[in-house]
């Protein structure tokens, strides 16, 4: 039986187009945009000047003058408006593409593989969103979105968390550095390219070996919510930044000290079962 497609309404597209689109994105975002080949994608993000993550996204380079930012959870209008303030004399247009819809499916795409996109004649763009936990495809298309399926949507989000891709609600934006969110695992930021907002903080933390906190993955039978404090006995050592319930279990990502107890941790009284983060989602 073929896996069913389902809508991903929390995934939205902001398009950058024009002669300076790539140069602008390279100067603003934390990944190596100029080095990305046309027809490929990578994880990226936008930081505050203090190096805190405003938004995470998949950055798709359709051609040398067209980029799509596949935002997860962030408000696309708010994001585009904030980004527009930095355009100045650059020759590009920033647009929220409400005509494009994201669809998920738990099987392998027929042509897209790894970081390589598949671009169809009708304008559909497919990504290989799979990893060690299994195959996934994500399709962006101008056609109407697939039907909503809450269970499959939750399973998709739980897959993201299991592979160390944090899903950041508004309360968690501008709170964490890329290192605290372990985004090196996704190759989502660069410490070698030129300046971008927050670059000095990111590079200093990297080269001075000052990263002391990172992501940890937990499951629980009790409800877990974003903002819960994670405790080791009576001592609070971190907090939950992403949480979802899927297949009868709660799953969460928490920012904790890199050195922490492997057992006995709790979140507001709920027992936490630690799991290793899965790999294979880096692009």
Treating each run of at least 4 consecutive H or I residues as one helix, how many helices?
Answer: 4
The CATH topology annotation of the largest domain reads as Gyrase A, domain 2
Classify the secondary structure makeup into a structural class.
Answer: alpha+beta
How much of the sequence lies in strands comes to 25-35%
Report on the structure:
Helices cover 14% and strands 34% of the residues. With 283 residues, the chain is α+β, with helices and mostly antiparallel strands. It folds into two domains: 6-150, Gyrase A, domain 2, CATH 3.30.1360; 170-274, Elongation Factor Tu (Ef-tu), domain 3 (Beta Barrel), CATH 2.40.30.160. Strands 16-15-12-13-14-11-17 form a seven-stranded antiparallel beta sheet. A hairpin with a 5-residue loop joins β8 (118-119) and β9 (125-128). It starts with 5 loop residues before the first strand and ends in an 8-residue tail after the last strand. The model has no long low-confidence stretch (mean pLDDT 96). Keywords: Transit peptide. This is Folate-binding protein. InterPro entries: TrmE/GcvT-like, YgfZ/GCV_T_CS, YgfZ/GcvT.
Q: What order do the helices and strands come in, and which of them pair?
A:
Layout: E1 6-7, E2 11-17, H1 21-28, E3 40-47, E4 53-63, E5 66-72, H2 76-84, E6 93-96, E7 101-105, E8 118-119, E9 125-128, E10 137-141, H3 150-162, H4 199-207, E11 213-220, E12 229-232, E13 235-246, E14 249-257, E15 265-267, E16 270-271, E17 273-275
